[in-house]
Amino acid sequence: AEVAKTGPHQYAITWGATNFREALARKQKHFSGLDYDPNSEIVVTCGSTEAMMAAMMSITNPGDKVAIFSPFYENYGADTILTGAEPIYIPLVPPDFTFDPEKLEDAFRQGAKALILCNPSNPCGKVFTLQEMTTIADIIKKYDAYIITDEVYEHILYAPHKHIYMAALPGMRERTITCNSLSKTYSITGWRLGYVLASPEIIDRVKKVHDFLTVGAAAPLMEAAVTGLNFGDDYYQELQAHYTHMKQLFVGGLKDLGFTFTDPQGAYYVLMDVSEFGVRDDYKFAEWMTREVGVATVPGSSFFREDVHNLVRFHFAKEDATLQDALNRLESLRKKANAATDVDWR
Asked: Which 3 state secondary structure label does DSSP give 301?
């Protein structure tokens, strides 16, 4: 309220208000152990969506190739194509969504300039292990490439899983471009406050791209958000406890109903297998499910390069009453789906 009354209400410096960048640097040091210069290694963006696009435009040229794990947040493929680069998809294999190091390395043999890594993952909730991160880092270093990390869910984790910062691994500080956001950690998705952390050389390019994409993030929102960036460890512990409660409520309910689904290690999404209903078109099934069952989902195929049409994605970052209502409605799913005739999704 004080910021709304007194400001700032004018443009901040293009790459972000000084006190906001300084607060980001302190937070990053606290959690990752890495020192970032607020003036030469941080750019504030209008959300992590812009952060990712600015990062992509800063390191790729038309005709370059970019490796992407599948399933993936759908913007990654679009961002790659919009920059004129070509995506190469590497499958993450259920149920643990592991990857074949040989297939990842093959993408770099084909000339991939960078890898996009979402950790924890949207949509599958995977948290990459230290061994997996080290394997990825070794391949990145071997082929003198970059890695762009999307770490917006870094604080939404479920025990015993831990977030590992790629930039903190040996030899990866200069090769890692970290994209992040305040949206998920502080539940302010509408504020559109993101940022890029990288070496001075990369950040100099990101500053130029960012200036022409959006000019700058909202000054009063940066001022207000500094308060959140200065929260102590108790806030993040309470955050994990809060999301753990929601996960246990929703995942426990799905288990009681006998459905097959992914149990997320991080983030707040669940992929549920609907193949028992003979689903051939998950888009049409999701529409039918919204209409007939009263629960909205996202078709799983929107996250996969592979031919996957048997999954739908749930989002459980909701109030208890909403989650319980959804579970109550899902009690009728099996009966309604099995009884459905003349449907266009089977």
From this structure: helix
